[in-house]
Amino acid sequence: MKILLCSSNPILIKSLYGILRDEGHDVDTVEHPALAVQKVMLGLYELIIIDSEPFGLSTEDAVQIIKTVEPNLPIIYVGGGMNNGLSMAVDAPVDLEEFKETIHSITRYDRTTQCVKH
Which backbone phi and psi does 2 adopt, to 5 degrees? Predict the structure, then answer.
């Protein structure tokens, strides 16, 4: 799965990037929500993981723009606080097993049919 990880926290990026890579995912990272919006507009991603900590463009504004461009693109908020539709939240500090299960639940979801893959 092609994933975009957005956070200004280098520790968070390092830990989540390693897990995602070890699970076989292709991961790009950006530090700011505005860069995430620019990357999403290229249409390359199947999942966005975005830190809920505010920096630069607010997380809420970035997600609103992303959902306008890619309404079915799943988003995981790290730090919780937001959870709607195809978006999920994981609390900080991140429980790595819970995070892996969240990723697996998204990889089983087919955005085109909006059904769980078997």
Answer: -90, 115
Here the CATH number for the domain that contains residue 108 is 3.40.50.2300
Rounded to an integer, the average pLDDT of 65-70 is: 85
pLDDT tens digit sequence for 70-102: 888 888 878 765 555 546 667 777 888 888 888
Read off the DSSP letter of residue 32.
S
Q: Which domain holds residue 104?
A: 2-116
How many C-beta atoms surround the C-beta of residue 68 within 10 A? 10
Q: Distance of CA 62 to CAs 16, 31, 32, 93, Å?
A: 20, 13, 9, 22
Q: What share of the chain is helix, strand, coil (3-state, %, to 5)?
A: 35, 25, 40
